[in-house]
Amino acid sequence: MTAVVVMDDQSLVRQAVVDILDTHDDITVVGQASNGLEAVRLASTLHPDVIVMDIRMPELDGIAATAQICSDPTLAQTKVLVLTTFEEDENLISALRAGASAFVGKGAEPEDIVRAVRSVHVGDALLSPAATRALTAKTHVNRIMTKVQAHDRAQLVILAYESGLLTPGE
Q1: Inter-axis angle of helices 89-98 and 62-71, nearest 10
Q2: What value does the mean pLDDT take over residues 137-150?
Q3: What is the C-alpha separation between 120 and 102, in angstroms, rounded?
Q4: How many whole angstroms separate alpha carbon 11 and alpha carbon 76?
Q5: What pLDDT shows up at residue 113?
Q6: Digit-coded pLDDT (tens) for 27-75
Q7: CATH classification of 2-126 is 3.40.50.2300, yes or no?
Q8: Apex CA 137: angle with CA 109 and CA 106, to 5°?
Q9: CA–CA distance from 137 to each of 77, 97, 106, 124, 127 (Å)?
């Protein structure tokens, strides 16, 4: 069972995501937050498997909340999936640097959000489930992660941006 906290300052969006996730037997929403401070508090209290995090919110934005959650050693098993309307490259890079494992637009289909939660929970961050199913791809990614001492695929993307292999807008 994947325990999820849904964090969005818009109650209608938050409830829609909760409703989408709650229809699946393998996912349970254990908490909801309307701002970043609440999300950090709930993460510390509930230790969910995945937090679905909005970026722009009052009191503490999603990037800062993600950074606090991902830097807390007691929450090492909690993964953050950023779900946002603002899909600009700078938000993606900021979210990944803060420790997010995935970045999904709110325009995604409901089943894509469910797949993203499941993927993040099992460690398939940032890569589509179809791509991660291929054994050859998994083997190469795991070897690269070992060589550069990355703990997940999100760190590989950050490394690619920081080394100049990728540039925003490509």
Answers
A1: 20
A2: 79
A3: 7
A4: 28
A5: 94
A6: 999 999 999 999 999 999 999 999 999 999 889 999 999 999 999 999 9
A7: yes
A8: 15
A9: 24, 24, 27, 12, 10
